[in-house]
Write a structure and sequence with these properties.
The complex is a heterodimer of chains A (344) and B (354).
Chain A lengths: L3 H9 L2 H33 L6 H5 L5 H10 L6 H14 L11 H36 L4 H15 L2 H15 L17 H39 L2 H8 L4 H39 L4 H10 L3 H29 L1 H4 L8
Chain B lengths: L1 H6 L3 H18 L1 H4 L19 E4 L5 E14 L4 E13 L1 E11 L3 E9 L18 H37 L1 H16 L2 H10 L7 H31 L3 H8 L4 H9 L4 H24 L11 H5 L5 H6 L5 H24 L8
Antiparallel strand pairs in B: 1-2, 2-3, 4-5
Helix pairs in contact in B: 2-4, 2-13, 4-5, 4-7, 4-9, 4-10, 4-13, 5-7, 6-7, 8-9, 10-13
Classes of the chains: A mainly alpha (344), B alpha+beta (354).
Amino acid sequence: MDNPENKTSDIKGKPAFSTFKFIIKRILQTIPLLIIVSMISFFIIRLAPIDPLAELRLNPSISQETLDKEVHRLKLDKPIYIQYLSWAVSFVKGDLGYTSAGEKVSTKLKERIPNTLLLTTIVIFMTWIVGIPLGIFAAIKKETAWDRILTVISSIGMAIPSFFFAILLLIFAVKTGWFPVGGLTSYNYNEMSLCGKFLDLTKHLILPVTVLFTISLSGLQRQMRANMLEVLDSDYVKFARAKGLSEFKVVFKHALRNAVNPMITLLGFEFAGLLSGAALTEYVFQFPGLGRLILEAVMKSDINLVMASLMMGTIMLILGNLLADILLMITDPRIRTGAADGNH
Amino acid sequence: MEIIKKIFQDKFAKTAFLVLAILYAVILFADFIAPYSSGYSNRNLSYAPPSKIYTINEKGKLSLPYTYNYVREYDENLMQTVFKEDKSTKYFIKPFAKAEGYKIAGIIPTHRHLFGVREGGEIHLLGTDINGRDVFSRLLFGGRISMTIGFLALFIVFPIGLLYGGISGYMGGLLDILMMRFAEAIMAIPSFYLLIILAAILPSGMTSTQRFMLIVIILAMIGWAGFARVVRGMVLSIKEEDFVQAERVMGASKLRIILKHILPQTTSYVIIAITLSVPSYILAESGLSFLGLGIQQPDASWGNMLKEAQEFTNILYRPWLLAPGGLIFIAVLSFNILGDAIRDILDPKSIVRK
């Protein structure tokens, strides 16, 4: 590594190959993870003392024959590991079964996942656009009134329960009548022009986005501030300052790059937090997303739906982390060369 | 104590510490401070607004604080029930008034409450809920559950996390790989999804104590994995230190080295993690109970009290039902501020954060 020639070859020659290798390695790592997750969730759900057919049994119009068919289809008469295997095989094939209301689980998921993804993507995008500059600003203005105010605001943002904030916003929406309450689109959405559709969607998204934005912004801002302060305190920044570089250059050219890297790792966690936070927010706003779907499925003990949405949530989370890792590798050359793996 | 002294030097941390101390004192003496028990209900007074307290009487003179009872009437013009004050009888607010009996610390029976009105009167500082139960009293009793459930969950999370992370990190090899894959799998499930599924599979027909304990266990099952991973990371570096090597040469057993020599090194991290993670458990419990999957009626918790706020009419016309949300906010905010302060004190590396 000390040989400068070696270093250049590292940066110029290897990346394409090592990037590819890294991505493949990370994707392969997620497979055992998914298998373990599916086993954990399957056994939790199946071993629970709930009867997946309770709703059907209570319905007098459903004959014993149909019930037996259901038992056979869900393989409830077989030992649990066979149930798991048959579930896993059909899951891999893309067959997620039917909900207790008789709809295809996959159609349900196809309907809901894009909505949740839309919501979380907008929120992540906005928190980064606002949170990173605010974090930098607070770090530069450390211990001034500005910094204090931002600290107080972010502490408040972190302490307010998402569902409580959502309720407060609902009151606001109802009292002012400025925002539609609930859902993602108006009833006459299909008749609207493209522009009208966009406006309608935006109006419906504003409240849930505001809730999730406020909550995740605080954490992001604080983290960015802490990272920036740490980097600003490091020797190479002191050196850059001693060289007589302008403060602007020091902050944005030298410090920023290193302060942002840890934030990218956090991106995965942020996504995880958003998926969880979104469930309650979606519930309060009656937003048709994955979180509300799983909640409804749980309340109805709709096993196929619960299992499938749990797996989908997990896959989304793992993919989010994967994307964050790949992004980090692009921005941080130490990961590519393996220097960050501990063998520096 | 060094830590407490330092906490008191910081204005914010001091306030947060005092707020929490007051909150815990209040819920500890909830029986005494609350004018009603958590189960008391007056069916004629469902959704009564907060009692108005007067200190100036009808002649415009200063008086001891008093209040009037509410009477429910049906207003035909408005087509809804309204509550009117019955101005015929004044009820003075008396300190140490006699009301429902309870036992101080569960031993000494008494009828005295911090304040109250004479028999026949009703005082509801924060109004009543759908069953005519006193919101203020239930807020205090609910605090007992909401403010302790996080700590109880941590009592399960920390031993498990420490042991799991300790063994995984110290043993290494295949065991380490297997244990960490399992922990990662738990972390890969969106935590709130897992939480509602676990809560939903609880059998119905449990006593409230059983349910409370199971909710604690469920909350703990979500949190241990992340903690165990951090502990493992710390153990990996600690086990290379000389004193551990020396212990190994002297022939100490692996479990002894882990428990006696390695884990105590993580103490300051554990203290920081405890104070910083209590709020997330408070929020998780309230979210769960808000959905109706956590603490169940008739027990009170801040989350399940807010369940009533799911109805539009309630949040628009009965804003006093939102009070538990305010308390959750205050408690979580205080824990966050205190946690930050303790981290700054115990972790010198993060001094730049100040």
